[in-house]
Write a structure and sequence with these properties.
Elements lengths: L1 H26 L1 H27 L7 H13 L3 H5 L7 H13 L3 H9 L2 E2 L7 E7 L5 E9 L6 E5 L1
Antiparallel strand pairs: 1-2, 2-3, 3-4
């Protein structure tokens, strides 16, 4: 009698398991859950980025001042400080780039290049750009800036 009960219990358990697996497969619940998880990660990342901008106090009152602050920190080897002059989402990327520039012995070359950056005029927006031209009037590098609306500080976006 107990064997029949155990067998019935095992068959019932297996049947329930099969039904659950079929329901999950049939309703595509796993892709739906995965999509919801991905949406959560994106929204969480956006919230963290907004918080980083709210708390960010690095940068100058003008693009020129920010570039000067960046080059001074970079020149003396304070790469962590130098990276803070970039927009929050680019800080780790440029920290790695600067570490590579140091390894390659390019610090003086980059500082010299950036010292020749010229602002082209008043853009009246929260984005701006400074350019470096060579003697042949060819563009060598553009430096892009963004004004943090929270702190009103100018940040480097890229170069």
């Amino acid at each position: 009698m107990w064997r029949d009960f155990s067998r019935k219990k095992a068959v019932l358990g297996l049947a329930i398991f099969v039904i659950i697996v079929v329901l999950i497969w049939w309703t595509n619940i796993i892709p739906i859950l995965n999509q919801r998880h991905q949406e959560y990660k994106v929204l969480s990342g956006i919230d963290k980025l907004k918080e980083a901008y709210r708390n960010d106090t690095y940068g100058g009152a003008t693009p020129e001042e920010t570039l000067k602050m960046f080059t001074e920190a970079f020149k003396v080897g304070d790469l962590n400080l130098a990276s803070k002059y970039f927009i929050p989402e680019k800080q780790s990327e440029y920290l790695a780039k600067m570490q590579n520039w140091v390894k390659l012995g390019k610090v003086e070359e980059i500082v010299s290049l950036l010292s020749r950056a010229k602002w082209s005029g008043d853009s009246n927006t929260n984005q701006d750009q400074m350019d470096v031209w060579n003697s042949g009037k060819e563009l060598e590098v553009s430096v892009f800036f963004f004004q943090n609306e929270n702190s009103k500080k100018w940040k480097l976006m890229g170069m």
